[in-house]
Write a structure and sequence with these properties.
Elements (H helix, E strand, L loop, with lengths): L5 H19 L7 H38 L7 H16 L2 H12 L2 H20 L13 H4 L14 H26 L5 H17 L1 H13 L2 H21 L1 H4 L6 H10 L1 H15 L4 H20 L12 H6 L4 H6 L24 H7 L2
Helix pairs in contact: 1-13, 1-14, 2-3, 2-4, 2-14, 3-7, 5-14, 7-8, 8-9, 8-10, 10-13, 13-14
Length: about 375
């Protein structure tokens, strides 16, 4: 079954809507400390945005002065310069994404939002199915996840400082790649082939050579700005999804190879989920606030594309068991109304366990 099929992307987009609506119903999401951290992040974002915009405004002002002394109506270099500066600020640097990702390494707020949201998803699931047979309900996520340490194991996860350095390097590579592609596209003659070629090589492994070739051909016809937006959204969605899932991966330890296969098996759903948030996060100032909503919604996503984790003492082999999304076909075929039916009876519960009692489950999340 292809991993990047239209049905998977659509289901991911549906999870974005459902996850956001359910997250916004959680009163714990609006705690004072969350707003305080969001306010700080907005202040940082505004400062960085101003730092970036000052030279851009300066260049525009300089061009305005030059236009009084020289005829720029027939010139194209000024439009190219302004287009390049706009691309640099909006599509390469991505200030809201950068600010909120760096905040993850400074304060635990985003991790707390994720765990509060996991707790909320579990409690609403129990309330929604309180009339059902407890033995048919899925196992809970929050109680086990809360037991896991966020400290990394040697060779798997890294200390916070090293993780931050890894992110900065990854961010730098992505900025360099996007900037390099854009600059190459400005070259005469060969420049028009750069964006379509980059799109082809990005997608041919996921969707196959024929659809990738169609993207290449379309890129030769459409204006360059559409292909730039397409490529930027694709790479940004991948980066955003990796950062949003960090609270899960810092607890459930995967090797680099296991994580690569985990993402590959779910890439269609993950792209569909992250796409809308990627677009909204580009909005100046409010994009920072939306990052918190995206983090809360990711908790709902995790309950749909992974199995409930065991307690840490029984976690050996669990990560490997999650690499392949075993119920993917069933999940993608479900109607939106029945989306909660996956992971039903995810684990056999022992007779007489208090967790079999719906009232006991509700008390656990009270």
């Amino acid at each position: 079954m292809p991993n990047f099929e239209p049905n998977a992307v659509i289901r991911g987009a549906q999870l974005t809507i459902v996850g956001t609506v359910r997250a916004l119903r959680n009163p714990e999401l609006f705690k004072h400390e969350h707003f305080r951290q969001a306010g700080f992040a907005i202040a940082v974002g505004v400062a960085i945005e101003l730092i970036i915009q000052i030279p851009i405004i300066g260049v525009k002002f300089l061009l305005w002065i030059i236009s009084w002394m020289a005829d720029l109506e027939s010139a194209t270099w000024d439009d190219t310069l302004l287009e390049s500066l706009d691309f640099l600020s909006k599509s390469v640097l991505q200030v809201p994404f950068l600010v909120m990702t760096l905040m993850r390494y400074i304060t635990p707020t985003l991790d707390e939002i994720f765990m509060e949201s996991i707790k909320w998803v579990d409690s609403t699931y129990v309330d929604k199915h309180k009339a059902d047979d407890p033995k048919t309900l899925r196992a809970m996520y929050y109680p086990s996840l809360a037991m896991y340490s966020t400290k990394g194991s040697v060779g798997v996860s890294k200390p916070k400082g090293e993780s931050m350095l890894v992110f900065v390097r990854r961010y730098g590579r992505k900025v360099g790649m996007m900037l390099g592609i854009f600059l190459l596209s400005l070259l005469p003659i060969v420049g028009r082939f750069v964006m379509p070629a980059a799109s082809f090589f990005s997608f041919q492994q996921m969707v196959g050579p024929a659809p990738a070739a169609a993207i290449f051909g379309t890129g030769l016809v459409l204006p360059k700005r559409y292909l730039v937006t397409f490529l930027h959204t694709y790479y940004s969605s991948r980066s955003l999804m990796r950062e949003l899932l960090e609270p899960y991966f810092c607890r459930i330890k995967y090797t680099h190879e296991q994580k690569r296969r985990w993402f590959a098996d779910r890439e269609g759903v993950l792209f569909g989920f992250a796409f809308a948030f990627t677009v909204v996060l580009k909005t100046p100032f409010i994009g920072v606030l939306m990052y918190g909503i995206a983090q809360a919604s990711t908790a709902y996503l995790v309950t749909k594309i992974t199995d409930p984790p065991p307690v840490p003492a029984e976690s050996e082999g669990f990560a490997e068991s999650q690499v392949t999304w075993t119920n993917k076909h069933d999940f993608l075929q479900l109607s939106l109304e029945n989306i909660d039916k996956i992971n039903v009876a995810a684990q056999n519960k022992k007779g007489g366990d208090k967790s079999d009692d719906p009232d006991a489950l509700r008390r656990k999340f009270a």
